[in-house]
Design goal:
The complex is a heterodimer of chains A (261) and B (279). Chain A has 261 residues and is an alpha/beta fold. Chain A contains ten helices and eleven strands. Classes of the chains: A alpha/beta (261), B mainly alpha (279).
Amino acid sequence: MATIIDITEEKALEVKDFEFTYAGADAPSIKKLTMPIAKNSITALIGPSGCGKTTLLRSFNRMHDLYPGNEYAGEILFKNKNILTSKEDLINLRIQIGMIFQKPTAFPMSIFDNVAYGMRLQGIKNKIELQDRVEKALQDAAIWKEVKDRLKHDANGLSGGQQQRLCIARAVAVEPEVLLFDEPTSALDPISTAGIEELIVELRERVSIIIVTHNMQQAARVSDYTGFMYLGELIELGKTEELFVTPKEKLTEEYITGKFG
Amino acid sequence: MTHTQKRIVINRVVMTLSTLSAVIGIGFLLWILSVLVINGVDALSWSIFSEEGAPPGYEESGLKHALIGQLMIVGVATIVGVPLGILAGTYLSEYGQKSKLAETIRDISDIMMSAPSIVIGAFVYAIVVAPMGHFSGWAGSIALTIIMLPIILRTTDDMLQLVPSTLREAAFALGAPKYKVITQVVYRGAKAGILTGILLGVARVAGETAPLLFTSFNDNFLNTDMNEPMASLTVTMYNYATSPYEDWQKLGWAAAFILSMFILSLNILGRLFIMKKKS
């Protein structure tokens, strides 16, 4: 059975008996998963390919709803409310739970318009307010100095690492409560990766972060809690240093020592 | 002969044959273009643009009626066909996706793309011209719209599908409603491709004669009433070129030249957009 530690601090999200089945699939990809996510901390999800970590991540902002036929069961509590109900306002949910993708997703528009996009969606039209918040978001994402003289330029002219930080700025600009990172550095070089990791650690003060990563060192470097998933189940959730040094489950130990995966 | 030598010989033979075929193909194209340019430029004059059609033997005759008629017929077809095609393509790519309805529309539209244009002309004759009792510019525009629609619809569909789904997801993840994702992010990403589709669609119908023969018919004089039969460059060219009068034949060459240059520039413009997109 799974070993899941009690989280004493406030929780950002609580997953309860969660199941997820992809359209047309016979069996659920995530089975009866229960997991607390601590507030203002970084939770890493690790596990071999196909273990369901990205599937779980994409459930937190109901990304699966973009494709027909996918099914949720169980509960994911956010602010004491189950977000899996059909009544849930997805637009409102996604404003509060932002997401950063594997590959940078700069929109085909200027750097400024990219960062302002989410704010404009919320109806903010005041130019000065937009400018202030765009600048602040870009500073938060540690990219302001590089782009401040070319805010009107096409965002696709930036390097991959810069684009990813731009996407983080865009997500941070709407001041979400939770940020989901789906392998945010897998398409980046080591220097850009280090920059993004630093940024994630800094963001923890303001948002709760869940990060899916293939890279165990990355999980060890940035996260406070780590969850190890295998075949759609959460095998172990613990404080990161404990999970990596003294794993309670045999499967976890085998995975982090490289015996499989 | 060793195996390697044999391979080299076969390589040379195939290369020579394919190069030769390419040269023959391009040769014909250049031949057509040069005959067109030589005869067309020779027939060009100011009166082509300033004068209407006239009986043979008249000094002052031109193509003004056909040029204006052509612009009006193609213009109306474009105004109707482009938004219709883009909206339908948007439905296919963004809403219908792989549904039965969407796939059926794609199949039908592919069939329509290869349907002989004269059949479309006959169809519009039956449903518009016959009930109205007379030829009209509107009927010509309707025929051209029908021909243009599948081209724009399919390019829009294809180009929108080329926009990575992660871009859509990123916009949704910021809390964007679907229509804003489409209009603000997906359309922007596919802008160059959609524009190319429009240009190619317009270029395709601008050169059509058969569907206009029995829809907008022809008029030897200037007419701007879309309810009446209307001259077009293509039909005028057909009539003048097949006439026994030398001055009319000359006007036919001029019409052919103007039409070709118009379509050629649309095509080149379309290609420029694609190239710009790739770079």
